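== Item description ==
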Amino acid sequence: MPENDAQELSQEEIEALLSQASELSSDTAAESTAGSPGEAPASDVDIFSAVDAAPARLDAIEDVSPRQDHIMAAGEAVEVLGDIPIDISIELGRVKLTIGELIDLRAGSVVDLDRLAGEPVDVLANGAIIARGEVVVVNEYYSVRITDIVDEDE
């Protein structure tokens, strides 16, 4: 086969090569157990005869390691990410209702939540709890005073 010409192998050629390789590996295993120590196993089957094997060119692989000039300082990251909007919600409590109970709700109905009065509320960012706090009133608006930042492990 010419050195620079690419050649496609047919399914039969591939199967023949695989068969030779499996014979070679079984012959090598048998010879390595039967031969004397330190003696290289002899083989008359060359599975690479139909394929040109060239050494890998490591110089063609791109360097993908991070460079110092591409690493942001914490202040720069905050500056870049600072304008990305996220949804913040405050969860006062939860309750599970059946569909029938939900249909029966009317104006004036009272829904009991799973939290007691005075317990901290959850502060969620995009649905994940990030803090807990207490409900306060500031200028006639409900607000939350953060009392605890939640660890990643919780």
Notes: The chain has a mean pLDDT of 76. The CA atoms of residues 91 and 122 lie 5 Å apart. Residues 11-34 form the longest helix (24 residues).
